[in-house]
């Protein structure tokens, strides 16, 4: 395996690491709360992981993987938009 190919495998593995970490933080938060919880960091790990995996899938020219990661990234960003909007609305209501 040539160096550039090893680099791309490393990029793919980094993306998969971030994508996996979102489940780890969700699992820990749920265990601590004793109820299903999706912490804000879940969405950040989702975005970082899916963007890295999107770059990797573009390199691999895999249309199925590309479409899946592009769509997922949109959903993750939208969830963060609502989280930050809600925080802003609460802060404004408390003022």
UniProtKB/TrEMBL annotation:
Q: Which SMART domains match?
A: LAB_N (SM01259)
Q: Name one Pfam family in it.
A: LAB_N
Keyword annotations: Membrane, Transmembrane, Transmembrane helix
Superkingdom to which the source organism belongs:
Bacteria
The Lipid A biosynthesis N-terminal domain sits at 11-82
Residues that span the membrane, as ranges:
7-29, 41-59
Instruction: Indicate what this protein is called per its UniProt record.
Output: LAB_N domain-containing protein
Native organism is: Geoanaerobacter pelophilus
């Amino acid at each position: 395996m040539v160096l550039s190919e090893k680099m791309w495998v490393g990029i793919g593995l980094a993306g998969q690491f971030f994508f996996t970490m979102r489940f780890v933080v969700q699992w820990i938060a749920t265990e601590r709360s004793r109820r299903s919880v999706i912490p804000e960091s879940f969405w950040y790990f989702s975005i970082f992981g899916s963007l890295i995996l999107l770059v990797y899938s573009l390199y691999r020219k895999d249309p199925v993987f590309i479409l899946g990661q592009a769509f997922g990234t949109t959903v993750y960003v939208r969830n963060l938009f609502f989280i930050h909007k809600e925080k802003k609305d609460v802060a404004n209501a408390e003022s």
